[in-house]
Amino acid sequence: MDNEINTNTIGKDFTLKQLAKFVAAPVVTRLLVSIFQTLDDSLFISRYCGQNALAAFSVALPWFMLVDAFSMLCSAVSIHCSIKMGQRKNDEAKSDFSTMCIVTVCIGLVFTLILTLFRDKILLILGETPALLPYAKQYMDVSRFYAPLVLLSFTFNNFYVISGKPKCSMYVNVIQTFCNIFFDWLFIVKLNTGIVGAAYANGIGFICVTVFGLVFFSNKNREMCFGKPHTNIKPLIRNVFRLGRTQAITSIALSLNSFIVNNVMLSLTGEQLVAAHTIVNNVFFMFMNSMFGLVGATSPIISYAYGEKNPKRLTKTFKMVTILIGILIAVISCVYFFGRNIIIGLYLKDGTAIEVRQMADYGMKVAPFAFFFISYNIFVQDFFNACSNSKVSTTLSIIENVILSNLTVILLPKMFGVKAIWYVLLVVEFITFFFSLESLYKNRFVYGLNPEGIATFADR
Questions:
Q1: What is the rounded distance in angstroms from the CA atom of residue 320 to the CA atom of residue 24?
Q2: Confidence class of residue 39 from pLDDT cuts 50, 70 and 90?
Q3: Distance from first CA to last CA of the chain, Å, rounded?
Q4: Which end of the chain is more exposed for a tag (fewer CB within 10 A), N or C?
Q5: Cβ–Cβ under 8 Å, residues 49 and 264
Q6: Helices (H), 76-165
Q7: Chain CA centroid to CA 225, Å
Q8: For residue 245, what pLDDT band results from cuts at 50, 70 and 90?
């Protein structure tokens, strides 16, 4: 018989203060870690390897985003298991978790094999120019081997909250960040290994956090731990795919969009605009990572409430998360405006790359206006996904990341010139925001998002 879940964790009836305290560690961790990570690979590469190395790293990013897409897909098993825990099927949840961990490693090995066989072709397709190709090859030659660890560590990270230990997510991120910064400094600055040193540093970081996860989930006293894997894989993968396809499609679309953006910028002004765009994007998503921490920490709570068909708890959680997002937007906007010039100065040495600095400075002034819209778009998509309604979340993701993102990045620069590249994100998120509101309104009686609190929980 399945064990009863400890309702002191994701099954708890939170107040706003308690929920804020519960998500504080993931939010602060994601922000601090992303700050250090932004001051990590890209900074070390930019300052010590040059702007061409930074541009090469950016042009190769669509490949890593494709790997991320599958990590998002695999880690959606956390939603699947949260729903099962809400249904008091803990043993099944543990077994599914263990089975999916094995699947993620196998998928990672496939990525390693593909990059080993077709590295040069992949880099040329991505748009690496003759000036950038040597840097990209060096980085890929090392990074291809730890793809399985990337996927497995992402899966582990989603289950620390489910286990009632959200601070462990903070610990592993701190460990990984420390490894990245220390070994970037050691390999790139002290040993002068160039861009390949960043790949070594990342690999060591992923090894450390994967070992941490293996030890953590081997403890049978955890609310979530390794169970006995099963062979009934097809239904599990089908359900995980259904729940994770929104994040996967988003990552694949972002990978495609990154590819298009890089090629548009290379055609407009060359490697300098790519380098400037990389800096602005890194800083923007450095702050947005705190929002991902908030949404990611509350997603299992929403899934649990949906699993037990509790409209009161579901709508209450929805409203509290909405409030917390608003507070977080205000905080990160202030931090962004006060800290942006300091951060951009860390990327570029004084008196060097003047044109890149000017481009980045302009982009940094435009980017924060998208904070509000992108934050709520992220939450709405995650809410539907956590409620097992991947149809709506996938539709919103396609509208945002496939249709709008690619159309705007192609059309805006042609219509308004090079500077329009900085307004693409704002335009996309602004339009998507209204689609998000419409989706919530249409489904208000499904999840109790109405004054009467009526919830049919009808499958959509």
A1: 14
A2: low
A3: 31
A4: N
A5: no
A6: 77-86, 90-126, 133-143, 147-162
A7: 24
A8: confident
Query: 190 vs 367, which has greater pLDDT?
Result: 190
Q: How many whole angstroms separate alpha carbon 2 and alpha carbon 69?
A: 32
Closest CA to 261 of 281, 235, 245, 233: 281
- For residue 40, what are its two tokens? 């990590």
- Nearest-CA neighbor of 274 among 210, 353, 215? 353
- List the Cα angle 48/53/57 in 5-degree steps: 120
- pLDDT tens digits along 306-324: 888 888 888 888 999 999 9
Distance from C-alpha of 426 to C-alpha of 433, rounded to nearest angstrom: 11
Q: Show me where the domains of the chain are located.
A: 24-442
| 44 within 8 A of 198, measured Cβ to Cβ | yes
The token duo for 252 is 């694949």
Predicted local confidence at residue 4, as pLDDT? 41
Q: If you ran DSSP here, which 8-state letter would residue 451 be given?
A: T
Q: What is the pTM of this model?
A: 0.66
What's the length of the chain?
A: 460
